[in-house]
């Protein structure tokens, strides 16, 4: 989800300015309807929806004009794939309280991927996390809430800060247990806050310590989502397109 989709119109589909085009994505349990932006007479742009599972969906390009019935201009299949970022987000979400698994992730730190790779990983994994269906009881600190903050342990927040993942850290801060994780020491006595300071991650340290800290730049800062029951409406400010998502 959240990547730009371009639609090329054929000669016969290029019509007057008062025609509005939109795309309807129909999956097994969820349907998305997105408005489009006209780039020129022959092409449209919109944002791909974040889907709830990896599957092939039907996409219909529809045309609407005041006083006329809605027309289906074209239909095509569109595949949502399960990539490494999705796998990583699922793994991390499942291992929120698993000390063995969280200690295992520390080997990534020793390999020290290049900054460009870290930024790519941060953007993709944070985006995948946003589109996961997390259980209502999910917590950054794991399912066992009987543990007190004084018990030394590794947390998802330690993982995100250790690698310098700004956007993932922001996402975790907004989740249950996110703020509580900031004061938890691991077996080396480090908190996520002290880790950020020790590694010289100034922006990350600012994010963790300033009350008014803003979300790091990403696709999500360009959009605003409103939820209501089984529906949500998302406005992407960059392209000025809207997306309605409804559970079937």
Automatic annotation (TrEMBL):
SUPFAM superfamilies: Ankyrin repeat. One of its GO terms (biological process) is positive regulation of canonical NF-kappaB signal transduction. InterPro entries: Ankyrin_rpt-contain_sf, Rho_GEF. One of its GO terms (cellular component) is membrane. GO terms for molecular function: MAP-kinase scaffold activity. It comes from the Eukaryota. This is AKP13 protein. It comes from Rynchops niger.
């Amino acid at each position: 989800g959240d990547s730009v989709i371009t639609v090329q119109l054929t000669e016969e589909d290029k019509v007057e300015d008062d025609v509005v085009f939109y795309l309807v994505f129909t999956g097994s349990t969820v349907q998305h309807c997105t408005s489009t932006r006209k780039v020129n007479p022959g092409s449209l742009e919109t944002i791909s929806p974040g889907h709830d599972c990896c599957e092939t969906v039907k996409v219909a390009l529809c045309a609407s004009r005041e006083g006329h019935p809605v027309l289906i201009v074209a239909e095509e299949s569109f595949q949502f794939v399960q990539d490494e970022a999705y796998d990583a987000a699922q793994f991390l979400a499942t291992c929120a309280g698993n000390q063995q698994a969280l200690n295992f992730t520390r080997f990534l730190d020793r390999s020290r991927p290049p900054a460009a790779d870290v930024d790519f990983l941060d953007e993709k994994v944070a985006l995948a996390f946003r589109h996961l269906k997390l259980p209502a009881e999910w917590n950054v600190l794991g399912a066992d809430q009987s543990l007190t903050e004084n018990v030394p342990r590794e947390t998802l927040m330690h993982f995100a800060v250790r690698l310098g993942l700004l956007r993932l850290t922001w996402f975790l801060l907004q989740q249950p247990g996110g703020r509580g994780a900031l004061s938890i020491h691991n077996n080396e006595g480090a908190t996520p806050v002290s880790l950020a300071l020790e590694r010289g991650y100034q922006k990350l340290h600012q994010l963790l310590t300033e009350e008014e800290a803003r979300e790091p730049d990403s696709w999500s800062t360009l959009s605003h989502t409103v939820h209501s029951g089984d529906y949500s409406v998302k406005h992407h400010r960059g392209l000025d397109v809207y997306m309605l998502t409804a559970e079937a």
